[in-house]
Write a structure and sequence with these properties.
Length: 1206
């Protein structure tokens, strides 16, 4: 045994499965492949039928015909099958250059079939075949034949014992009768047997001989038929019959006969089949099965050649091959392929055997090539290889259709750029036409605003203006309208100098009057905003101009986009260039005759410029494996970290395909930096443009941050982005990255400044001041100057920057900014700027801060409002206070706000008369009565509210009024006290201040009740009939206070008092109102009293004491309405005494006391009343006058006895 071979076999079996699938036809399973197996059953049944001799198994290529035949051979072993395949025979259809006729082709086919018959069996089986072939004897057979010959010779020697071969010592040694006997027998037997075998072989050899020619002395006789047009089958039919005669084959399977697209051969084969089945020498049924494609025959030809036809439905076609391809790939564990790509590839696959081979080759390539390759592209390349193997092979040699297509990119770029240039030319013509039209429109627009200037000046009677002073010259109005630059200079001027015609009249020598014109010059302060209001208040000039230019902007944007597209084409992948091209008809590709498959693969980008990665190995001689992997990732569009390290950057950049610069994976810091530093190469400029487009389109702003932090000079990339990205600043703001802001300041602000960026810089002075050295002081100064920046918050981080900003007034007037600048110039160190004690007085006292002070003076109003806001601002000196209050440039609101609550006070004599009221209102006047009187006098002796507030605020400081004379005091007291404008606490203090002042019959209608009381208490309002009537009519609520104050006088003049019951009650309760005073009050009010309990109670004592002065009715009403029973009983006793002679009146009076006393007057009842002292006095009085006869005590009651004859 060959142990080395066995060891190799074992080793191979132990290796991991290589996942390769055999391409041989697969056996069908009866159970799992029921539908496909029906064809096998059909064939098996027809093989049993005697009349079915020629069977066709039809179906397209790859439909599974071979699988069916193989399954038939395996499962139906009772038949002996002979398989003939013409797959290796070259079809003339494949060789269009060397065409052959049908007969020659048929002979080749017949020869191939015959060849396969003869060589199917061993030569011993076809011993009598005249078709000779090389006969090979094995070494063992050669040894055996040699041994047999030698043994035959030895046998002859033993039998015949020739004397010339006799050797005495051998004969002596072997001399033995028995041995000699058996030796002779064996030798004779061997000689006899060998001779018979030799004779048999000789007869067989002579049996397949044929006499073709006889050579005679004078010539030769030709016995062979010499028909060159005889077919191979006809010529060797006896060989075919002999073959089936000596073999057991009864089923002949012929495959791939349809490759030749020749139906004549089927007639030949049908003829051969008929001869075999009719031959008695064969003696059995021989069935031919043909595996052919469906479209081999037309119309009735199908049934003419065959006895039975069974059809095979293909397992796959272009509609379902995608699923089969996915299934085969998944079986091998390849599940990372794109489904859409597999669908596109499978569209071209309709052969199962080819599909399996594609999967096999893909697995081999995948295992051997770099695993990082795009597996979709690799599979595509394998599909193309299987369908176009020659073109695939030519690809390695730098030729072929695919190679030529990929290298037509430069021609495509030229064609594309030519088309773009044509489009740019068309748009440029439109733009030029539009610009010419707009130039007229813009001129007319400028003339409208120039006319606006003239209208403005016409109000000054200067309507004949013919030129304006612009850029150091007087220029006619028409020329200014023509030139946009001149017009912009004009509208930027705060004042206008102009020339105009001035008319005059001259008396001529003959007495005629002649008009003449002279030119004159003048100026006027006119802001362009005023002119815009005159011309159109809805839209500004620049808004209207922009509206005019909107169309131009659109065309320029289109041109810009097209130019960028042209510059970027070099890096455009070829599949994008091919999208709009029909490769079958386009002039660049028409001669290449590109297949539909290749066109589809190219347009989908499945085959492109990186094809070499998918057909060959990488050896790493020019660049190392690490850098090659990076380039491969770029080709696959796989993004790596931005800081992925590259070993040989120059070589790496040179090997990066142009198309990679259009993908986000190109964003590598080293690559971009190398390109930025080598822009002297024209190609690098285009690459930089592509990279900038990638950053823009994919919003990879984080790359900009890393790039800026990692390289020394990133300006080329940022400058390029600034030129192609609109609104780049807004993007940076959204990223909110210090690195991007810093890069903007260094590289972009000067040339790409925007309103938004300037606004941001105004608010981020600290960001700049901390980076002055990095950005460059000169650059910062230029940014501030060009952008006219006004910083909202400044700091002293950079002294030079701070001084530049202060000197150029490029900061807002805020407390922090002014303090920051002030502290810097003062060279003072403070921990915090908050609440720094700064005011105008302190600022002006520091000479080193004069720059700051001058800036403050220019915007004094604004500074007072927004800068000086700490407590120190309320400590200004008298000089500063007077400057502010007397200034005409400071608004009243600012003055009031800033001067209020100032600690230092001024005299009104130092304040302009027009500002006196403001000074009083903001409380900067010294609180003294002379100052108050001076202001009071200036107001026409009127106590206005501001003065009243001032007095209220300083009432505690105004205790000394001695500086005023009596007249001044009286005037002020009149205005201060005869109103209710002061609060009571202040009013009472004013009364004390004006002590001694009285008001005789003064107007008190403006004094409310509370203030009136205070005046009464201070004896400032003496009694008078005027005050009494005035108070009665207008101040009834305080009448009681007035009456209490002057009670005696009021009772004497009681007729001046109102008959108001409230006043009556008040007087009757006054302890001073007694005796005659009380009687006078009751008598005055009695006619107006409507009695009730309260009035009766307070009046009863006065009436009781003066009972004789009142009539019965009054006495009766008081007695009835009073609720004080003891007083009533006492009063009743007095009345009984007064009316003792009239019992009817007494009865009426007693009944007015109520039910408890009414029984006294009823003689029919036994009267009893409560036993008390007053009741006893009452009954005693009644007994005295004879109203009752008697009374007696009965427990707690007093029982009354009536008179019988009363």
């Amino acid at each position: 045994m060959n142990w080395r071979f066995w060891k190799k076999i074992c080793a191979n079996n132990s290796m991991e499965d290589d996942k390769q699938v055999s391409l041989t036809p697969a056996l069908l399973n009866r159970d799992s492949d029921k539908k496909q197996y029906r064809s096998v059953l059909n064939l098996a049944r027809k093989l049993e039928e005697k009349d079915i001799l020629n069977i066709a198994l039809t179906g397209p290529y790859g439909s599974g015909k071979s699988s069916i035949l193989r399954s038939l051979m395996k499962d139906y072993c009772k038949y002996k099958y002979l398989s003939i395949s013409l797959a290796t025979l070259k079809s003339p259809l494949d060789d269009k250059k060397n065409k052959i006729d049908i007969d020659t082709m048929n002979n080749r086919i017949e020869y191939s079939i015959l060849q396969q018959l003869i060589y199917k069996e061993k030569q011993e089986t076809l011993y009598n075949s005249r078709l000779k072939r090389i006969y090979h004897k094995s070494t063992w057979a050669q040894y055996a034949l040699s041994f047999a010959i030698i043994l035959y010779i030895v046998a002859l020697i033993i039998v015949f014992e020739p004397s010339f071969l006799k050797v005495d010592w051998i004969c002596n040694r072997l001399s033995n009768p028995v041995l000699n006997k058996w030796s002779d027998i064996f030798a004779l037997s061997y000689i006899f047997g060998a001779t018979i075998i030799f004779a048999q072989k000789t007869i067989k050899s002579l049996g397949n001989s044929k006499l073709n020619k006889l050579n005679l002395k004078n010539g030769e006789i030709e016995l062979k038929e010499n028909k060159e047009d005889t077919s191979v089958f006809n010529k060797h039919m006896d060989e075919i019959v002999y073959f089936f005669e000596v073999t057991d084959y009864n089923v002949v399977i012929i495959e791939d006969l349809d490759r030749f697209n020749n139906t004549d051969i089927f007639l030949k084969l049908r003829e051969v089949n008929q001869l075999l089945n009719q031959s008695n020498s064969v003696g059995r049924k021989v069935t031919f099965i043909y595996a052919v494609k469906d479209d081999m025959f037309f119309d009735e030809e199908r049934t003419k050649f065959f006895d039975y036809i069974t059809t095979v439905i293909p397992i796959i076609n272009s509609s379902n091959s995608a699923d089969k391809l996915k299934e085969e790939l998944e079986i091998k564990g390849f599940s990372d392929l794109n489904v859409e790509v597999m669908d596109s590839l499978a569209f071209f696959i309709d052969d199962m055997r080819l599909l399996k081979n594609i999967v096999n080759e893909y697995a081999q390539y995948r295992e051997k090539l770099d695993e990082k390759l795009d597996q979709n592209k690799l599979l595509t390349m394998i599909v193309y290889k299987n369908y176009h193997p020659k073109d695939f092979a030519d690809l390695h040699k730098g030729k072929g259709v695919l190679y030529d297509c990929l290298h037509k990119k430069s021609e495509l770029l030229i064609e594309r750029n030519r088309q773009i240039d044509e489009r740019i030319g068309v748009i440029t013509k439109k733009l030029q036409s539009l610009e010419a039209t707009h130039a007229m429109q813009e001129k007319e627009l400028r003339l409208i605003y120039i006319e606006g200037y003239r209208k403005k000046l016409s109000k000054q009677y200067k309507s004949n203006v013919f030129s304006f002073f612009v850029e150091n010259n007087f220029i006619p109005l028409e020329d200014i309208a023509e030139n946009e630059t001149l017009f912009n200079s004009l509208i930027s001027q705060p004042s206008i100098r102009y020339q105009y015609f001035k008319g005059c009249q001259i008396n001529t020598y003959y007495g005629h009057i002649r008009s003449c014109y002279d030119t004159s010059e003048d100026s006027c302060n006119v802001q362009f905003s005023q002119i815009e209001e005159i011309v159109n208040s809805d839209f500004t000039y620049h808004e209207r101009l922009e509206a005019l230019r909107e169309g131009e902007k659109k065309y320029r944007e289109q041109i810009k986009i097209l130019e960028l597209s042209r510059n970027n084409h070099y890096a455009t992948p070829i599949h994008e260039l091919l999208l709009d091209i029909d490769m079958q008809t386009h002039k660049i590709f028409s001669e290449l005759k590109v297949s539909k498959m290749l066109e589809a693969f190219l347009k989908e980008g499945l085959i492109n410029e990186d094809y070499f990665d998918y057909i060959s190995f990488f050896f790493g001689k020019s660049i190392n494996k690490h850098d090659h992997d990076f380039i491969l990732e770029l080709k696959l569009r796989h993004s790596l970290p931005y800081d992925y390290h590259i070993d040989k950057i120059e070589l790496c950049v040179k090997n990066i395909p142009d198309k990679c610069y259009n993908d986000v994976s190109i964003l590598n810091i080293q690559v971009v930096d190398y390109i930025c530093q080598h822009l002297e190469e024209e190609a690098n400029n285009s690459k930089l443009h592509s990279i900038a487009q990638v950053v823009k389109n994919n919003k990879k702003w984080d790359f900009l941050i890393d790039f800026y932090k990692s390289v020394e000079d990133s300006s080329p990339l940022f400058n390029h982005l600034g030129s192609i990205v609109d609104g780049l600043w807004k993007i940076f703001v959204k990223q909110n990255s210090d690195e991007l802001f810093e890069a903007w300041l260094r590289f972009l602000e000067l040339n790409h400044s925007t309103k938004e960026s300037r606004n941001w810089l105004n608010k981020h002075f600290a960001f700049i001041s901390h980076r002055v050295d990095l950005i460059g002081f000169d650059t910062v100064k230029q940014i501030i100057s060009n952008g006219k920046l006004i910083f909202t918050d400044i700091d002293a981080e950079s002294g030079c920057l701070l001084e530049y900003v202060v000197e150029n007034e490029a900061y807002m007037l805020t407390p922090e900014n002014v303090v920051c600048a002030f502290v810097h110039y003062r060279n003072e160190r403070v921990e915090t700027l908050d609440n720094y004690p700064l005011n105008v007085t302190i600022l002006r006292s520091c000479k080193s801060a004069k720059t700051v002070s001058d800036y403050i003076d220019e915007r004094f109003d604004d500074a007072l409002n927004n800068v000086f806001i700490t407590d120190a601002a309320k400590q200004e000196s008298i000089e500063i206070i007077l400057e502010i209050v007397n200034s005409e440039d400071i608004s009243e609101g600012t003055k009031r706000k800033y001067l209020s609550e100032q600690q230092n006070k001024v005299s009104l004599s130092d304040v302009n008369n027009t500002q006196w009221e403001s000074a009083i209102e903001v409380d900067i006047v010294t609180p003294a009565w002379p100052e108050i009187y001076a202001f009071y006098e200036s107001q026409n002796n009127v106590m206005i509210s501001s003065l009243r507030i001032f007095i209220t605020k300083h009432i505690d400081e105004l205790t000394d009024i001695s500086e005023l004379d009596d007249t001044q005091k009286e005037l002020l007291a009149n205005s201060a006290l005869l109103t209710s404008g002061f609060e009571m606490s202040v009013y009472d203090k004013l009364i004390k201040i004006f002590d001694g002042v009285t008001f005789k019959d003064a107007d008190i209608n403006s004094v409310d009740n509370a203030h009136f009381k205070s005046l009464l208490c201070a004896d400032m309002l003496p009694y008078s009939t005027y005050y009494t009537t005035t108070i009665r009519d207008n101040h009834s609520d305080v009448l009681t206070y007035y009456v209490d104050k002057y009670l005696d006088e009021c009772i004497i003049g009681i007729e001046e008092l109102p008959t108001d019951m409230r006043l009556y009650k008040h007087l009757m309760r006054n302890p001073r109102v007694i005796g005659e005073k009380a009687l006078s009050v009751v008598q005055y009010f009695l006619p107006h009293i409507v009695w009730d309990n309260e009035l009766a109670n307070i009046t009863l004592p006065v009436v009781k004491n003066n009972i004789e002065k009142f009539d019965y009715d009054t006495e009766k009403y008081i007695l009835a309405d009073s609720t004080n029973l003891p007083e009533r009983l006492s009063f009743l006793i007095d009345l009984i005494e007064k009316y003792r002679d009239d019992f009817d009146i007494v009865t009426e009076l007693i009944e007015s006391l109520g039910d408890s006393y009414r029984s006294i007057t009823d003689k029919s009842k036994k009267a009893t009343i409560e036993n008390n002292h007053m009741n006893e006095m009452l009954l005693g009085k009644l007994k005295t006058i004879g109203y009752i006869s008697s009374y007696r005590e009965d427990d707690d009651k007093l029982r009354v006895s009536h008179k019988r004859n009363h």
